[in-house]
Automatic annotation (TrEMBL):
Region (Disordered): 69-149, 183-206
Low complexity: compositionally biased ranges: 72-86
Protein name: TetR/AcrR family transcriptional regulator
Keywords: DNA-binding
Entry-linked Pfam families: TetR_N
SUPFAM superfamilies documented for this protein: Homeodomain-like (SSF46689)
PANTHER family reported in the protein's UniProt record: HTH-TYPE TRANSCRIPTIONAL DUAL REGULATOR CECR, HTH-TYPE TRANSCRIPTIONAL REGULATOR RUTR
Amino acid sequence: MPAARESLLDAAYTALARRPWSAVRMVDVAASAGVSRQTLYNEFGSKEGLARALVRREADAYLAGVDRALSGTAPPGGLTTTATLTGGTGPTGPGRTGGPALSGGTTPAGSPHPAGSPHPAGSPYLAGATGLTGPTASLSPPGPADPRDRLTAAAEWTTETARSNALVRAMLTGCWSERLPSPSLTRVPSSSAVPAQRRADGPLPSPTDFVALVRDRAVSALAGPRAGAGSEGYDPAELARACELTIRIALSCIAAPPAEGSVADLVRDALHSLLSGPSRTAAARSPR
């Protein structure tokens, strides 16, 4: 029941905007979605399963926005997020409009995630997180395909989404407030017959995973066959360093927003020397 599942996740998201997760009742989520409580349990199995599915969806939506930014279809100014989740009223999440916003504050809150130890480099999460769902941004007409602009757009998307979406912020920083669900990052036993729930019951991303996921997506986007002018001249190791530096700058700006300027200025300054042109290694390989 894909439609019912999405309606239930939307209802849970809206409920979380109004009260702490501990006070969200399954019966109210089902009623808000217009389905039976049995349908809710059939889809998610339990409240813990619902929490994992909600976190899984927000992680996928964030990464889908990163892919859009890196595709070069967003202008240098970045993406316009439809998620407004930091208080007041407005859109309620990626691809959703209307309803209250989810209060997330402006600085990391709460203690580190109880299961926040990084997954190893070859973790099931990193190996299997290739399918992304859900629109997360309103895109302006195609902009420049310069690698620096695309990395800057990804950094801006990261900081803006973390600012407006408390769940994404918690996932990226590892700091979960008492208002939020905090499912274990490790895989949990799953007997669900619903493929989407079996995936949600698998490993969830840690902050370290997100760094690797965004870095690898960026390298692939900027070094692939559709990378755009200039990208093919970069040394792979240099490009990987630039991509990882970008996401780490974005994460630092989430934890400590810059007092002056913007994340775009910081990223462009950092990338100026790294991606100012074809690397010496690449130049040495070029025929004279």
